[in-house]
Design brief:
GO terms for molecular function: transmembrane transporter activity. Keywords: Membrane, Transmembrane, Transmembrane helix, Transport. InterPro entries: MFS (IPR011701), MFS_trans_sf (IPR036259), MFS_Vesicular_Transporter (IPR050930). By secondary structure, the chain is mainly α. The chain has 2 domains: 61 residues; 237 residues, MFS general substrate transporter like domains (Growth Hormone, Chain: A). It contains 13 helices and no strands. Helix 7 packs antiparallel against helix 13. The relative contact order is 0.14.
Length: 383
């Protein structure tokens, strides 16, 4: 995850200089350039050359992946601002489907020939998609949409500074909540597979177990899109947070649970983890975008680019700091006590997401009541 870090610095500058279609097509072309590096590892001699080439491939690949990720989110949320939660959910649904399909097809392609074949196939698909992206350009001179009811408008002649969102409490609550989704992945990466060795799973069954999480993430993405559509994103973000805390309660299970480790508990935990991570990321991302609109920031690529950049930055922070801490804790205390570190964090943050949901529900009802009172007053004046 460390190579992703420098990639978030680049896209937000591009948003104010080039059009959306050029940005995505250029980042997609750059993303293609990493595949020759990955393929070359197969023919690379061993030793120092192989190590150096691997480091270059990982660093460059992580950089362009981050650029493409931020660019894609910035473009779609700018173009479809009123449906940002739904479109993010669709993208994450496709991400989950791609992970499941890639796990199967990648192995099949390697069995068909060797390690480089999946990268030849995927690179070809990316190149063939670039003309389609260039052809379907952004609609020129798109007018900003009207700000939502009750939005805080800046004074005439002044411009709201985007960096001030970084000390906005509600904005930061959403950032921490979505960051926890990648904290969970970062914790599982070095610790879950060694813990599962006690069950003597075959490679196939181990792959199925991991696929349960991706399948659950896909289902969770679909539900997150639905809750965003009905304006209940904060509720589902809280529900997802609760799900992830419960998942780590039964995964070990927790030392205070009088139950030996059971494989069925791992499957249930992975199911709750997948749905919960989808809810955390999609709903919090959507809430962050809607909050910037309510704060009076313009509906343009610069705003969505900044928000997307901050989102990916928080994700990367969670992803690169968690694995070494997780490995150290599990090595020192074993998995069941060590996993309580993450369980405690998730449990601590759960009531904060609950309060966030209650606060947004209260402000929405108050705003609706004020609008109704104003309409009644206008109607009485006309009468």
């Amino acid at each position: 995850m460390l190579p992703l870090w420098p990639g978030w610095l680049f896209p937000v500058q591009c948003h104010v200089r080039v059009s959306c279609d050029h940005e995505v097509s250029s980042s997609r072309t750059t993303a293609y350039m990493r595949f020759p590096l990955y393929r070359s590892l197969y023919w690379s001699p061993g030793g120092t050359v192989f190590l150096a080439l691997s480091l270059v491939a990982v660093i460059f690949g992580g950089f362009v992946q981050t650029v493409y990720l931020v660019s894609a989110y910035s473009v779609v949320t700018s173009e479809l601002h009123q449906s940002s939660g739904v479109i993010i959910a669709i993208m994450e649904f496709m991400f989950g489907c791609g992970n499941m399909a890639g796990s199967v097809l990648g192995g099949a392609l390697i069995d068909l020939w060797e390690y480089p074949l999946p990268f030849f196939v995927l690179g070809t698909i990316i190149i063939l998609s670039i003309p389609w992206i260039i052809k379907h350009k952004k609609v020129p001179n798109k007018q900003p949409e009207a700000p939502p009811e009750g939005a805080l408008m800046p004074a005439q002649g002044s411009e709201k500074k985007l960096y001030r969102l970084l000390w906005d409490p509600l904005f930061m609550v959403n950032m921490v909540t979505l960051m926890l989704s990648w904290v969970i992945m970062g914790f599982n990466e070095p610790t879950l597979e060694p813990y599962l060795r006690q069950f003597s799973l075959s490679s196939t069954r181990l792959g199925v177990l991991y696929m349960v999480q991706f399948a659950s993430y896909t289902v969770g993405a679909a539900f997150a899109g639905l809750f965003c559509y009905v304006k209940m994103a904060a509720f589902f973000a809280f529900t997802g947070q609760l799900m992830t805390a419960f998942a780590y309660l039964i995964l070990g299970p927790a030392p205070f649970v009088q139950q030996d480790p059971q494989l069925w508990m791992v499957y249930v935990s992975q199911t709750f983890t997948g749905v919960g991570m989808a809810a955390q990321f999609i709903c919090s991302f959507s809430l962050a975008l809607s909050h910037t609109a309510k704060r009076g920031y313009p509906d343009d690529i610069r705003t969505t680019g900044f928000v997307s950049t901050v989102v990916v930055t928080f994700l990367v922070i969670g992803a690169i700091t968690t694995p070494p801490i997780a490995g150290l804790l599990v090595e020192k205390f074993s998995y069941r006590p060590g996993s309580m570190f993450l369980f405690g964090i998730l449990l601590f943050w759960t009531p904060i997401t609950l309060l966030h949901w209650i606060y947004l529900m209260y402000t929405q009802r108050t705003r609706s009541a004020n609008v109704a009172s104003r309409d009644r007053f206008i109607f009485s004046r006309k009468s």
